[in-house]
Specification:
alpha/beta, seven-stranded mixed beta sheet, about 15% helix, binds 2-acetamido-2-deoxy-beta-D-glucopyranose, leucine-rich repeat, signal, LRR_dom_sf
């Protein structure tokens, strides 16, 4: 009896101790979040009238601060959105202490400096958006290295910054990545093969960089979910791989302004979801695929500034969603098919600097009735 009583006493005591510790740990953790945000604020240069200057203060709970979202139960910071707030400064490494952070959006500010390695400790992070800032240096290797914890990352955008150097192959280790947006930096070197190995990837945005090399022939071997490939204005060369036709989810293929040569692979007409086909400004030869009419969803076809020959296939009349057709500056010939008149969505048509036999009545009709310009 006495033993049972004392057991009860001890377990009650332990329970109280446990609750006390839990509480303390919890308060400490919330305090960690607060000091991380204060360190972040200190790394910004904010004038007295900036919204964060007054608002991010110990007067109120961090969960009430502008741009901060907390989890409802544990009151830890789960989202930080300081997008488009005219913030000048850099990112304090303490941001890596926000261990419950799921979403981080610091886009459209004037942030500069390096992306601190401490961000690799954010193991719950799914969204990291640093677009439209002025971060510099190389894209850190830690992004996908085995010492990094950000394996849940689904969206990574550093669009329009001043990053340079190679794209680290370690990025391919981010097994949950769906969107990789590296547009508008100064990345050089080849696209690491590991990127074409990411079975979760849906959007690959590499336009406006200085990347070299070619696309792998088996580009779609593992990119089963890829929906959009954008690599405009780089220095890629070689052929457009016929294997692209195995990326059945593709709605955008934008490879304009590179040095691709060879022909447009006819297999491309199997990409039934394709809406945007942009291959202008390359060194492409050969003809427009005869069965292009299969691509019922096409809205935009830009093949300008190449060395394409032959005539416009009559199947073009099937492209009822076509809004823009740009065939400027090629060596296309023959008669422009009159069916083009029936493409009711067509608003932009560029055909000049080719070798057309004659422009024909169809074009006269389009010209006068829809106000097209730039017809030869
Ligand atoms: C910060 O802004 C939020 C939302 O506008 C407001 O609820 C909160 O009271 C503000 N805190 C301080 C200390 O001004
Ligand atoms: C951040 O807030 C802006 C509006 O202020 C919104 O457009 C954007 O989607 C938000 N970012 C995230 C990741 O939710
Ligand atoms: C950014 O904020 C400005 C006003 O401060 C607003 O006019 C603009 O539309 C915002 N841009 C975006 C992309 O949200
Ligand atoms: C404070 O900074 C904001 C942008 O960060 C700017 O729009 C505003 O004019 C500045 N105010 C003063 C008083 O300098
Ligand atoms: C937060 O992170 C910084 C730098 O990453 C570190 O030096 C500091 O000890 C951390 N602070 C707390 C309270 O965990
Ligand atoms: C971006 O940073 C570079 C230095 O790293 C500087 O030369 C440039 O002026 C900055 N650009 C803007 C828009 O602030
Ligand atoms: C992590 O990667 C390094 C080199 O990239 C390698 O030497 C090391 O064995 C790896 N560690 C683990 C645990 O995989
Ligand atoms: C983004 O970068 C591209 C080229 O690198 C440039 O043309 C564009 O103006 C930039 N956009 C903004 C909003 O800075
Ligand atoms: C692609 O993934 C497979 C399986 O995960 C791996 O064995 C291979 O090394 C990877 N290749 C590249 C180039 O990353
Ligand atoms: C196409 O480009 C590749 C790589 O630049 C080159 O090796 C090849 O000779 C070119 N082929 C043609 C037909 O121009
Ligand atoms: C598409 O994938 C299949 C099966 O993996 C393969 O046999 C075929 O060669 C691929 N097509 C192209 C054009 O590469
Ligand atoms: C035109 O579209 C129909 C489906 O609407 C399709 O069955 C047919 O094969 C297409 N014709 C050509 C020539 O692409």
């Amino acid at each position: 009896m006495e033993k049972a009583y004392s057991n009860f006493f001890i377990s009650s005591l332990l329970l109280l101790l446990h609750l006390y510790l839990l509480e303390t740990v919890c308060i400490d953790a919330v305090h960690t979040d607060e000091s991380a945000l204060f360190a972040l604020k200190a790394s910004f240069t904010l004038n007295s009238s900036h919204p964060l200057t007054q608002n991010w203060s110990s007067q109120s709970s961090i969960c009430d601060w502008i741009g901060v979202t907390c989890g409802s139960r544990h009151h830890r910071v789960t989202a930080l959105n300081i997008s488009n707030m005219s913030i000048l400064g850099n990112i304090a490494p303490h941001l890596g202490n926000l261990s419950f952070l799921v979403s981080l959006d610091a886009s459209q500010n004037n942030l500069h400096g390096d992306l601190p390695q401490d961000l690799s400790r954010l193991r719950r992070l799914k969204v990291m958006d640093f677009a439209f800032n002025n971060f510099s240096g190389e894209i850190p290797m830690w992004f996908g290295s085995n010492s990094s914890s950000i394996s849940k990352l689904e969206t990574l955008s550093v669009r329009n910054n001043s990053l340079q150097g190679n794209i680290p192959k370690e990025i391919g280790n981010l097994k949950n990545l769906k969107e990789l947006i590296l547009f508008g930096n100064q990345f050089t070197g080849t696209i690491p093969l590991s990127i074409f190995n990411m079975s979760s990837l849906e959007i690959l945005g590499l336009s406006n960089n200085q990347l070299t090399g070619s696309l792998p022939v088996d580009i779609c071997h593992r990119l089963h979910r890829i929906k959009s490939i954008g690599i405009i204005s780089n220095h890629l060369s070689g052929h457009i791989p016929p294997g692209l036709s195995n990326c059945t989810e593709l709605y955008e293929l934008s490879l304009s302004y590179n040095s691709f040569n060879g022909t447009i692979p006819p297999e491309i007409v199997n990409l039934e979801r394709l809406q945007f086909l942009n291959l202008g400004g390359n060194k492409l030869r050969g003809t427009i695929p005869a069965n292009i009419g299969n691509l019922q969803k096409l809205q935009q076809v830009q093949l300008e500034n190449n060395y394409m020959v032959g005539s416009i296939p009559h199947t073009i009349s099937n492209l009822s969603s076509l809004w823009m057709l740009n065939l400027n500056t090629n060596s296309l010939s023959g008669i422009i098919p009159r069916e083009i008149v029936n493409l009711h969505k067509l608003e932009i048509l560029y055909l000049q600097i080719n070798k057309w036999f004659h422009t024909g009545r169809a074009l006269q009709y389009l010209y006068t009735n829809r106000g097209f310009s730039f017809l030869q």
